[in-house]
Amino acid sequence: MSADLFGPFRVGEMTLANRMVMAPLTRNRAQADGTVPSVMAVHYGQRASAGLIVSESVPVSPQGVGYPFTPGLYADAQAVSWRRVTDLVHAAGGRIVAQLQHCGRISHPSLQPGDALPVAPSAVRPDGQAVTYSGMQDFLTPRPLEAKEIPAIVAQFRDAARQAKRAGFDGVEVHAGNGYLLDQFLRDGTNHRTDSYGGGIASRMRLLNEVLDAVCTLWPTGRVGVRVTPENTFNSMTDSDPQAHFEYFAAQLSSRGLAYLHVLEGDMSTTTRAVDYPALRAAFAGTYIANNGYDLARAQQAIAAGHADLVAFGTPFVANPDLVRRYREGLPLAVPDRNTFYTGGDTGYIDYPFHPHEEALSA
Ligand SMILES: Cc1cc2nc3c(=O)[nH]c(=O)nc-3n(C[C@H](O)[C@H](O)[C@H](O)COP(=O)(O)O)c2cc1C
Q: What pTM, to 2 d.p., does this model score?
């Protein structure tokens, strides 16, 4: 296979048409019951020329929900409704994996069954506010999970992974980043436990390992990826030594033969990168997906230099459903309207036009 952004690439058991990945993008367009409306199928179908689509975060259980109008995979009706999306993406020659998420402390009682407190490894309250059905509300101090509750968390991921099969996905991405539950266990700013799920680095990784063990009983490892975000401060996250800790996590993940490791490099809110990502990448033997702030030039350079096997683009895919073609043909990019990122409705979701073909021919 050529080291070309636009050439095909084999990831685990999936053959991709190109090396461009659509990064997971939560857009809050699902129904309140977590089912998927047809507008979501249109949205994803429009973007199916990406080599691989990683779905928006999909809560694995009612307890895992942290935002309004997010599509789930914990009820049969949700799985069935996702079929519209996967069928359309497949009909257009694309591939799509489900990003499995448990929000942990990034939630609010009003989003939880029985108005319960959100759960977390430790009682560490995030700064800021939760997005709820009645506007922004302050985050609360979460309830630390008891060790005896952890098998039920693992089961939530396993059950969602099973539903992802029924929904027709090509695989699953376990979301261990962006300050959600698995990341809250991985990073020492949020994991203050002293039992076998906290303390040392191996213990902090134990929940992720157990989740992967469970998910991989249902999916071949070549269809299971993991997303990590070592130094992203989003959702009030910190870690005392992301370089050492995430190199360790990457090395451990390496032995599993997973489809890929998907890394949000740096911090979404700044351009600084304190972690040495080539070193992190070197610790992982499999396919590496780089993300965060990549454009065409940086993506091509990352692939040519062997830094990345695949590059994920988030915001560029929002306004450019035909991003692959625009990059391949050197066409100008449309600019996304941030005001409609999370607002619901069709505007800013399915109405970004494809680039007119005639201009492409004369370009
Ligand atoms: C509107 C929006 C929604 C996002 N939703 C998710 C999500 O559901 N899961 C996730 O892991 N990352 C999510 N992200 C982060 C993106 O996947 C990506 O890491 C980030 O936008 C940086 O990549 P970019 O510079 O190519 O946009 C989101 C970002 C944006 C802008």
A: 0.98
